[in-house]
Amino acid sequence: MKIVTNVELAQLLRKVAAAYQILDENRFKIIAYERVADSIEHLTSEAKDLWDDGKLNEIPGIGEGISHYLDELFRSGTVKHFDDLFKRVPEAVFPLLLVPGLGPKKAYRLVKEFGFRGSKTVISDLEKAAKAGKIAPIEGFGEKSEEGILSSIALYKKGAVKENRMELPIADSIAKAVITYLNNLREVERIDVLGSLRRMVSTIGDIDLAVATKYSDRVVAHFVKYPHEKIIDEGPQGATLLLHNGRQVDLRVQDPATYGAMLQYFTGSKNHNIALRELALSRGLSLNEYGIKKVSKSKVKSQKSIKCDTEEAFYNTIGLPWIPPELREDKGEIEAALHGRLPKPIEPGDIKGDLHIHTNYDLETSHDLGADPLAVHLDRAEKLRYEYIGISDHNPSVTKHTVSQIVGIMKRRKEYYDRQAHGKPVHVFVLCEVDIQPDGTLALPTEAFAYVDAAVVSIHSSFTLAKPVTTKRVIAALTAHPKVRIFGHPTGRLLTKREGVELDWKEVFAVCKKRDIALEINALPQRLDLPDTIVYDARKEGIRFCINTDSHAVSHMDMMRYGVSVARRGWCEKRDVVNTMVYNEFKHWLIR
DNA sequence: GCCGTTTTCGGCCCGACTGTTTTCAGTCG
Predict the structure, then answer these.
(1) Is the pLDDT at A160 greater than 60, yes or no?
(2) Is the full-model pTM beyond 0.85?
(3) Helix (H, G, I), strand (E, B) or coil at A216
(4) What's the mean pLDDT when you consider all of chain A?
């Protein structure tokens, strides 16, 4: 297999780690490979591109050894050392690692015991063995292991296991339902959503909740009575349920006196927590979910731990200010906190307008119209306390009209919106979302630009062109007309469905910077486009953003907060986002 | 195998739960 993408690369490195684990290699070597796999997964750019630029060593966790192997990989397509390693482990082991509860050691024992061959059939072979009662007698296994393997395989087959992530609103609504249920219990003092949902990651794996209570047993007992498919875990500190919808909910309970440590621990991210614990250790402190202990030379000095009832207290005890959850990804936030350089992330209330709204006005586009008229959107905008909105209908179809027909449509539309908007408390900008055609030209004739205040340009077709071609295409579009002010949903990704286009972001950033074009942060939960990692990179280059909902119905206008959370994860402050400007300033920025 | 405001050697985040065990290894988050 030719390794190209970060996902494949991370898989390869995890496979190396698993093989080393089976061969009882030094466990820190194993951790080293897992760490690199992890940081490659979290990379904003392709590792291959970094290698091209000779910057492989900038990836955290990559040193001389792994760098040398990856060099061989990118050069020749294979790594002899890895191939030799894999020869020492039966191929059938690796598919078993996808079954929950099976790690390298157990998977290896099973493969060796039964002599499984062929990675394609191994899971069904194992299922047969379990059903025949052949696993329980193996040393180290037992009745329960056999049952566990069977139910894990069933889950695996249902697809409920790996990479089955959900969009934010779905996670929100599941969390809300469970919280409502738990709040019926008097013993619950406080409930919080933690984990990736609190950090507002673009897709959510499972729901993490924490409860502050003095009666943990009662809360856990109540929780496991919530309608479920299966209890995955249960203990005095919490429990994990698999719901009927295939989603997992993880609950932790904790005494209010130490709740701050729990909030911090269970919010993650894992990498943030690891980095935080390493920092704490260097200062003679050991962190866990119950509090902070003083240590010396990896020995606990006193058994008494410092209790923190709030997260602020927890961070302060380590000597740091509180870090907003969206920043906790080990992307330099701890360093920034140490030096008092944490950003003050943008808040939903900073948004003064939404510039990407589709109404039901029919301008004979080949794309979707919105469902609601301008007036309805204006009412909503007023309730949201916006000063202005922008109507960004799709351009009229270019194949079904002549240039003069399009100019006519755009002129009539402009006049219509101007009449409708007259005298309203919320200002209306008449924009247009213009297709970036495969050759980089815009799907709106130059003459028609006279009837728009500005244009949002977006890709809606040919998503899979080669990177240099797409880059050229986008740059051509961004520079095609001075009224191009916003680059709409720049990657074109649809979460869990479609990968975004490949772009040379450095080049795109440079053009945006020069022409002061804003990159859209599309707040639609299926998009969340730009991805937060690219927002982070772009912001460092001084690029500004416009957070829009891309509403096709008035209810979509309430999704703005998801876009704001992407900006927060990208370390954006108010000043990094153009639609936080007051009307006059914004108008001055927008209209060229 | 990585890495350095104590270090180029000697460390490497922390704990819960499970199952099969009489003290622990494996897996997970």
Answers:
(1) no
(2) yes
(3) helix
(4) 92
Which residues contact residue A132 at a Cβ distance below 8 angstroms, ignoring those fewer than 6 apart? none
Residues 6+ apart with CB under 8 A from A210: A191, A192, A194, A251, A252, A253, A254, A259, A262, A263, A266
Q: Which residue has the tokens 């286009």?
A: A501
Query: Is the C-beta atom of A423 closer than 7 angstroms to strand B?
Result: no
Q: Could you tell me the distance in Å between the CA of residue A142 and the C1' of nucleotide B26? A: 14
Within window 287-306 on A, which residues have Cβ closer than 7 Å to strand B?
287-289, 293, 295, 297-298
Q: Residue A45 CA to B2 C1' — how many Å?
A: 22
Stretch A91-103: mean pLDDT: 90
> Given the structure tokens 């990692």, which residue do they identify?
A533
The Cα angle at residue A273 between residues A327 and A196, in degrees rounded to 5: 55
Q: Which helix (H) or strand (E) holds A251?
A: strand A248-254
Could you give the angle at which helices A505-515 and A532-540 cross, rounded to 10 degrees?
60
Per-residue pLDDT for A38 more than 90? no
Nearest nucleotide, CA A146 to C1':
B19
Q: Which nucleotide is nearest to A144 (CA to C1')?
A: B19
Report strand pairing: A238-242 vs A248-254. antiparallel
> Which positions in strand B are less than 7 Å from the protein's CB atoms?
1-3, 5-7, 11-21, 25-29
Distance A281 CA to B4 C1' (A): 14
Picking from A307, A203, A204, A293, the residue whose alpha carbon sits closest to that of residue A255 is A307
Cα angle at A204 between A338 and A501, to 5 degrees? Answer: 90
Is the CB of A408 within 7 Å of strand B? no
Mean pLDDT: which of A123-132, A487-496, A583-592 is highest?
A: A583-592
Residues 238-257 of A with CB under 7 A from strand B: 238, 250
**pLDDT 10s digits, A3-36:** 678 888 998 999 999 999 999 998 899 999 999 9
Question: Which nucleotide is closest to the Cα of A101 by its C1'?
Answer: B27
Q: Burial code of A140-152, b = ≥16 C-beta within 10 A, e = fewer? A: ebeeebbebbeeb
